[in-house]
Every structure is written in structure tokens, then in C-alpha cells.
């Protein structure tokens, strides 16, 4: 039974779902980092929000871990690169808290426009400072969205409902989508120059870190207000403080900070600053949604292999998973066949799909084929890290779908090329799910992928089968099945021999010494 650890404050619904699906679940919100390090080795899955830091060190200790699930959107607390290298899937819930976070951004905008937190404090202190809190109307004002993905789009929709004019800077936003959203796509300079209020909705990346700094602030309208409910670090906090102090920026509302938990911060204490402690996603509706979604997604992956909303592997739907599984098995076996024959640096791996296979989601099949090829070189390779490992080794990967009619209903071909050789195997599924080899090096030969096999390249000359049979017999090796194929009579041929015992090197050497034999390899599957 798989075992999952929940180390952050998720809705208890997650625990119920995991347990209902037969997953042993430990709910330990607020687990200290040192304890996480000492227990993580026991778990197949780890469910987190933003508090747990899933570092390279945690992942290095996570010998059984298969999946990290983020009940929320941002995965900057997970070292996704290290997770990929360790073969761990990282998944999030990209939509579950988007509306709630967009609403928080709108609430922050109102809080700034009408100084609600400050007015509340003053009123409850018995001051009745009616003339102190003169606000601004939002209707007719220009809102500048930096980032117009899921949350930015919802903010745009709500802002249009408030009769605001909305500009968006997002290099990945298409003109068509901008028209649908009723926003004007602009460059950053124009947004800074025109916006009365700027709200940030991008992830924190190398291109967005410090996107609002002193230089940017200087190009903004005097009296601009800034809202950040995305990530600390998008705004250089010291530069913003200086612009608030000088009066150039009229107000700032921040939910996220460079250092969290933010118990002290340069923005704190300014009269025109409103802060919340990373509450963007904190509504009961959003928390239920993300907990439920992540528990379902992680359970699906651990129990069926279905992958949804993963950051580092292609998606496989619950419907696809049972169909793809035998193909992934076949692709891995075929890759392994080629990999076991390859002893030099691989330049390329080509995966071809024909017949029914050509209609499938090729990414998982590709990942499985690469896994098979690399397995004989690297122990730790799996479906998650195989494409990265291939890339790191400079291996060129290609996938081709053919729409020609194959001799079999469904066919995969894996071709591995090194500096000097090309190895090609063709395989199919018999009865819908049983892997079967149907060709090697362009020669038709049918065989199962047996646990122990000899792969012999020979010339189709009399005497070979008898000689091979007696050599194996004398060595006490029983032949279970024997499959032959040849290019033409008397020409290049292949023998795939399933054996019941291990064939030692001395016997292999004497088989190789037979006059008809070109090469012989012992393979295992
Ligand atoms: N405060 C909170 O509690 C919450 C914060 N968030 C954060 O909100 C942010 C946005 O989330 P979503 O809208 O769901 O993400 P998303 O991925 O749907 O949208 C992000 C958008 O940013 C754009 N983008 C990327 N690089 C950019 C750049 N250099 N300049 C301008 N735009 C750029 C992308 O094209 C994309 O459209 C994330 O950082 C997420 O972690 C999300 C949920 C809750
Ligand atoms: O989903 C996100 O990206 C968030 O920032 C929400 O964070 P939280 O789950 O509230 O710690």
C-alpha cells in the first residue's frame, strides 16, 4: 500500500480521500524541516502547500518518493530540477485557488483605494477621522496587469466589471486572447507609463525577478498603486519603500514577500502599505478544492499511473493510462533491447509509431523508450528523468508518427544510433497488451522479451543451429524457445534464443567462434 505524508496545513478532505483510496496517510502539518529529512524515506508521496521546502537534500533522502503534490499553484518551494533528476513527479493544482487569489487582489485594490485597513484601525481606536481617509474611485481608472494567465485573466474580468480600463503585459498572451478578455496587450513601458494601479500575476522566474525596481518605478505615473499577490521578489522591496517614502507611489498592497514568513519587512510601518500574510489562496472554498484535487491526482498517479497537472512529465489521463501502460512496457523493453547492445555514446534515439500506436499520446511512450535505452547505462533512470538525462547526454530524440498501414495493427520502432552503428527493433502488442518483438535490424523475427535471451547475428549457413544447440546443451543450458529470421536465403540472419539458465562468458565466446556467427549477446528483460 503506498504511503503519503501531508506536511502542510491542507484541508482534512485530502486525508479522507487518500485513505478512501487505500493510501496509508500521515497528516503532520507544520512538520519541522529536520524531521521531514529523517522521515521522508518512508513515503511514496508528499503533499505540501508553500510552507514545506522540498529541497534537493529532502529529495536525496526520499528513496521511495514518486510524487510531490502541491495543493496550490506556485511550486517555487519545490526543487523541481532535483525532483526530476530523482525521478519524482511534481504536480500542482493550477486552477483550484485562482478565483480566490484573484478576489484577494481585487480586495487589496479596494483596500488601497479606500484605505480600509487604516480607516478601520482609526475608527476602532475611537478617532472618527472622517476627513483623513479621502479615497479614489476605481471606475474609469487604468489597471495594469503584469502577467495575464489564469489569475490575471480573472482579475481582468472582475476589473472590467468595475468599469476599469485594463492593460496587460504578458509576452505569452496572444492578441486573440487579449481581445476575448477585453484587455489591451501592451509592452511593459506602456503599462508602467499609463497604469493607475499595477497588479502582478506572474511566477517568480529569472525574467520576472525584480520586474518592479527603482528604474521601473521612476517611469510610472506619480500616485500609482501597486498590488502583489503573486510572489515576493517580483518587486524590489527597498526600491518600493523609497518610492512610497518620496510620495511617488501612493500605496502598495502586498500578500507575498521576499522572505516568508515575513515577521519584519522594509515595507512594514508605512502608512500607505497594506499587508496580508500570504492569504491569497486562503478561503475555505479554495482550500477544499486544492486539497481534493491534489489528493485525487496523487492517488491516481500512485495507484494507476495517470498523470495530471505535472510540472515535469507529460500528462496521462485516467482513460489513457490503462491503454498506454502496455505500450510503455513495450517501448521500454524495445529500448532496453537496443540499450543492452550499445556500448558506446548514443547520438540519437528515434521512436516511430504506426497503426493504432500512431493515434496515442506519444510523450509517455517516448519517455519509456528512452528509459529502456538508458537503463543499461544508468541505474537511476526512470520515466520522469529519462528525457532530461538524454538531453544532458546530448542525445537527439525524435518521434515520428506514420499513417501508412503496418503489417500489424499496431507497431513501434525504436532506432538507436551511435557514432558507428544503428540498431533498430520493431515491436507490437499481441492480444492488445502482450509485448512482442517482430523485427531486428530490418529482419523479420518474432519473439517474446524473455527474462534470459541470446541474440545472435549469423549467416544463414547449414550447421549453425545444430552447433549452437550442442554447445548450449553441453554447458547445461536449456533452450526454451528458438526464433530465426533472415534477410534472404544464405544471407544475414538473426537468432533469438530464450534460455532457462545464465550463459557464461566462456560459452558465449565459443558460440561467437562458430564460423557462421558474427556476434552474440546475452540479454535480460
Ligand atoms: N498569494 C497567493 O496565495 C497565491 C499566489 N499565486 C501566484 O500567482 C502567480 C500567477 O498564478 P497563475 O495566474 O495561476 O499562473 P499562470 O501560469 O496561469 O500565469 C502566469 C502568467 O505569467 C506570464 N508570464 C511569465 N513570464 C512573464 C514575464 N516575464 N512577464 C510577464 N508575464 C509573464 C505567463 O505567460 C502566464 O500567462 C504565481 O506566481 C502563483 O504562484 C497563486 C495562487 C495563490
Ligand atoms: O498556490 C499558490 O501559489 C500560493 O501561493 C498559495 O500558497 P499557500 O498554499 O496558501 O501556502
Automatic annotation (TrEMBL):
Entries under Pfam families matching the protein: 2-Hacid_dh (PF00389), 2-Hacid_dh_C (PF02826), ACT (PF01842), PGDH_inter (PF19304)
D-isomer specific 2-hydroxyacid dehydrogenase catalytic domain mapped to chain residues: 4-312
SUPFAM superfamilies: ACT-like (SSF55021), Formate/glycerate dehydrogenase catalytic domain-like (SSF52283), NAD(P)-binding Rossmann-fold domains (SSF51735), Serine metabolism enzymes domain (SSF143548)
Domain D-3-phosphoglycerate dehydrogenase ASB intervals: 324-440
UniProt entry tagged with the keyword Calcium: no
PANTHER family named among the record's database cross-references: FORMATE DEHYDROGENASE 1 (PTHR42938), HYDROXYPYRUVATE REDUCTASE (PTHR42938:SF47)
Keywords: Amino-acid biosynthesis, NAD, Oxidoreductase, Serine biosynthesis
Protein name (Swiss-Prot/TrEMBL): D-3-phosphoglycerate dehydrogenase
Any one GO molecular-function label of the UniProt entry: NAD binding
Similarity section: Belongs to the D-isomer specific 2-hydroxyacid dehydrogenase family.
Amino acid at each position: 500500500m503506498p504511503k503519503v505524508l501531508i506536511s502542510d496545513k491542507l484541508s482534512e478532505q485530502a486525508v479522507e480521500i487518500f485513505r478512501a483510496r487505500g493510501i496509508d496517510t500521515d497528516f503532520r502539518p507544520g512538520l519541522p524541516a529536520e524531521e521531514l529529512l529523517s522521515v521522508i524515506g518512508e513515503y511514496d508521496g508528499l503533499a505540501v502547500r508553500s510552507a514545506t521546502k522540498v529541497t534537493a537534500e529532502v529529495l536525496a533522502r526520499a528513496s521511495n518518493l514518486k510524487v510531490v503534490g502541491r495543493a496550490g499553484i506556485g511550486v517555487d518551494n519545490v526543487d523541481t530540477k532535483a525532483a526530476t533528476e530523482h525521478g519524482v513527479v511534481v504536480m500542482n493544482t493550477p486552477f483550484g485557488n485562482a478565483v480566490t487569489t484573484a478576489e484577494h487582489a481585487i480586495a487589496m485594490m479596494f483596500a488601497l483605494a479606500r484605505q480600509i485597513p487604516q480607516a478601520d484601525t482609526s475608527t476602532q481606536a475611537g478617532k472618527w477621522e472622517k476627513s483623513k481617509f479621502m479615497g479614489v474611485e476605481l471606475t474609469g481608472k487604468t489597471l495594469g496587469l503584469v502577467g495575464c494567465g489564469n489569475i490575471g485573466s480573472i482579475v481582468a474580468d472582475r476589473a472590467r466589471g468595475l468599469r476599469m480600463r485594463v492593460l496587460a503585459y504578458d509576452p505569452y498572451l496572444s492578441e486573440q486572447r487579449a481581445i476575448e478578455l477585453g484587455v489591451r496587450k501592451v509592452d511593459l513601458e506602456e503599462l508602467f507609463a499609463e497604469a493607475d494601479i499595477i497588479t502582478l500575476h506572474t511566477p517568480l522566474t529569472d525574467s520576472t525577478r525584480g520586474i518592479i525596481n527603482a528604474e521601473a518605478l521612476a517611469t510610472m505615473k506619480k500616485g500609482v498603486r501597486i498590488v502583489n499577490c503573486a510572489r515576493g521578489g517580483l518587486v524590489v522591496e527597498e526600491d518600493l519603500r523609497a518610492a512610497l517614502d518620496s510620495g511617488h507611489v501612493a500605496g502598495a498592497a502586498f500578500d507575498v514577500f521576499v522572505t516568508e514568513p515575513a515577521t519584519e519587512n522594509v515595507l512594514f510601518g508605512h502608512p500607505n502599505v497594506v499587508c496580508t500574510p500570504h492569504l491569497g489562496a486562503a478561503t475555505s472554498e479554495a482550500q477544499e478544492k486544492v486539497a481534493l484535487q491534489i489528493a485525487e491526482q496523487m492517488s491516481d498517479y500512485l495507484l494507476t499511473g495517470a498523470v495530471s497537472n505535472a510540472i515535469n512529465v507529460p500528462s496521462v489521463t485516467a482513460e489513457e493510462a490503462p491503454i498506454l501502460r502496455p505500450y510503455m512496457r513495450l517501448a521500454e523493453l524495445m529500448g532496453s533491447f537496443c540499450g543492452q547492445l550499445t556500448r558506446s555514446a548514443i547520438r540519437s534515439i528515434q521512436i516511430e509509431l504506426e497503426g493504432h500506436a500512431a493515434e496515442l499520446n506519444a510523450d509517455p511512450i517516448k519517455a519509456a523508450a528512452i528509459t529502456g535505452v538508458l537503463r543499461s547505462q544508468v541505474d537511476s533512470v526512470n520515466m520522469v528523468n529519462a528525457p532530461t538525462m538524454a538531453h544532458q547526454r546530448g542525445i537527439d530524440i525524435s518521434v515520428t508518427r506514420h499513417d501508412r498501414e503496418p503489417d500489424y495493427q499496431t507497431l513501434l520502432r525504436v532506432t538507436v544510433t551511435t557514432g558507428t552503428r544503428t540498431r533498430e527493433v520493431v515491436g507490437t502488442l499481441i492480444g492488445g497488451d502482450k509485448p512482442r518483438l517482430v523485427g531486428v535490424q530490418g529482419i523479420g523475427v518474432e519473439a517474446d522479451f524473455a527474462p534470459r535471451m541470446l541474440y545472435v547475428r549469423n549467416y544463414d549457413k547449414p550447421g549453425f543451429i545444430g552447433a549452437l544447440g550442442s554447445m548450449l546443451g553441453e554447458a547445461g543450458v536449456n533452450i526454451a524457445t528458438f526464433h530465426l529470421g533472415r534477410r534472404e536465403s544464405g544471407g544475414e540472419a538473426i537468432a533469438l534464443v530464450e534460455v532457462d539458465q545464465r550463459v557464461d562468458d566462456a560459452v558465449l565466446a565459443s558460440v561467437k567462434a562458430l564460423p557462421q556467427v558474427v556476434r552474440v549477446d546475452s540479454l535480460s528483460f
